[in-house]
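Q: For a teaching handout, I want to show students what a protein-ligand complex looks like in C-alpha cell form. Below are the inputs, and the small molecule is magnesium ion. Please produce the holo structure.
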Amino acid sequence: MKTLFIKDILKEDFLGKEVSIKGWVYRMRDMKDKVFFVIRDSSGIIQAVVKKESVDQKTWEDATKFQIEGSLEVKGILRKDERAPGGYEIEVKEIKVYDYGKPFPLKGDEDVDTIQKYRHLWIRTRWFTDVLKIKHSLIVHLRDWFIKDGWYEVTPAILVGNAAENTTELFEVKYFEDKAYLSQSAQLYLEALIFALEKVYSLTPSFRAELSRTKRHLHEYWHFEIEAAWYHVEDIIKVMEESLKYSIEKTIEERKSEFEELKSITGRDISELKQFVEKPWKVITYKDAIKKLQDLGVNIKYGDDFGSDEERLLTEQFDVPVFVTHYPREVKAFYMYEVGDGTVKNFDLLAPEGYGEIIGGSEREWRYDILHKKIEEWGLDKFKVKVGNEEISAYEWYEDLRRYGSVPHSGMGLGIERFLRWICKLDHIRDTQPFPRLRGSWLY
Ligand code: ATP
Ligand code: MG
Ligand code: MG
Ligand code: MG
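A: Here is the structure, written as C-alpha cells, with magnesium ion included.
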C-alpha cells in the first residue's frame, strides 16, 4: 500500500526529514557523478538527485539503469531547491527498484494513430491526467448537487429491448435466441422510476452508432440523465443552470493546478470559466435562434435542425451557455410535450465558444390520448415485442405510465464528455475518454 503521495510531502514540515516516495521516472538526466530524476505519481512531480559520492555502489548503478517510466521507490532527505520543479528536491539515500523499464515508445509528439495504438501508455501523459482529474471533479460535484437537492440515484437497464428512438444509430447485440440493443438513453426507464421516487438521476454509458465522424460524437459516452415528476421544462432549465455552475465552480477550486498545467496545452483559462459561473445564462427560442442565424447570412429556414456549424455560429454570439427552447415538433423526439403551435416544450443547452449541444431536455408528453396518437402517427407501433405467446407494441409499457396515475414530468440528458470537452477547451472529444470508441480505431 502507499500512504504518502508527492503532493503530501511538498511541505515545509518535511524539510530536512527523511521521506520516501513511490512512483515513475518522468524525466531523467545522467551527469557523470549525479543522476537527476523527476519522479511522478498520480498527485504530482518531484525532483530527486542521486549523488555518486553519497550512495553505495549498488544504488549508484541502479540509478543509471532507469528508463523513462521505470518504477521505483526513493528514500532520502527533503530539501528546498529553487531550481527544481515545485521548489523541492529529495537527496536520495536508497532506491528500491520495481522495474527499470524499457525505452518508452512515446515521446510526446506522436500523431493521432500512434497515440491510438499506444493509448494504454499514452493515458499517463501529464495533461491527460489533468483532464481525468477534472472529469472526476465535474462528475463528483454534479452528483453532489443532486444528492443535496433530494434526488435519488438509480440504475436503469443497459441492454434494452426496444429501439426507443433512433433506429439507425443502434448497436444490436445477441440476446440468447433473441436480439437486444445497447441503450442510447435511460430516459424511458427513468420516466417509469419517477412514480416511485419522484426525482431521479442516473449516470450510465450510452451507445450510438453515429455514422458521421465529428469532433463531438463518440460511440460510447457517459450520460448523466435526470427525470422528475411535477417538474416543468422551465424547472429543469433552472436546475441545470444551477447544478452545472456548482459543478464548475467546485471543480475550479479543487483543480487549480491541473487547469494551470492544461492552460499551456489547450489555452483554457480559469478566468473564462469563472465568467460562465458568475453571469446568468441565456434562454432564447428556436424561432429567435433561426432569425439570428438568418441575420448572420446563414441559409436556414424555420423547421430545419441545427448542425454543428449553425450551433457554433449561434454560440459565438453569446459569452455564456444558451438554452434554445421550443423546437418544431418534427425535429425532436415523439415523447416531447406539444404546446399547440407546432413546437414542443424542450431545450438544448449549447455550450459557448462554438462547442454546441451538451444537453437535450424536455417536458414529456404525459397525456395518454395525445401520446398514443403520436406513437401511431410516427409509426412507432410497428415495433413489437413478444411477451409470452402474445405480440404487443414495444411501447405498451411506456403507455402504461400514462394509464396509471400520469403526472406532468420533465428531464434531460447531459453528455459528460461534451461537458468536459468544453470545460477543458479540448478540440476533439476523443481526448475526454481514456479509451474512446471511434469507428475505425482499435478496440482494446
Ligand atoms: P447531437 O445532435 O450532437 O447528435 P443528440 O441531439 O443526438 O446530439 P441527445 O439524444 O439529445 O443527443 O442526447 C443527450 C446528450 O448526450 C447530448 O446533448 C450530448 O451531450 C450527448 N451526446 C449525444 N450523442 C453523443 C455522442 N455520440 N457522443 C458524445 N455525447 C453525445
Ligand atoms: Mg445525435
Ligand atoms: Mg441534437
Ligand atoms: Mg439532443
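A: Two things your students might notice: The pocket of magnesium ion (ligand 3) is lined by residues 357, 360 (CB under 6 Å). The chain has a mean pLDDT of 95.
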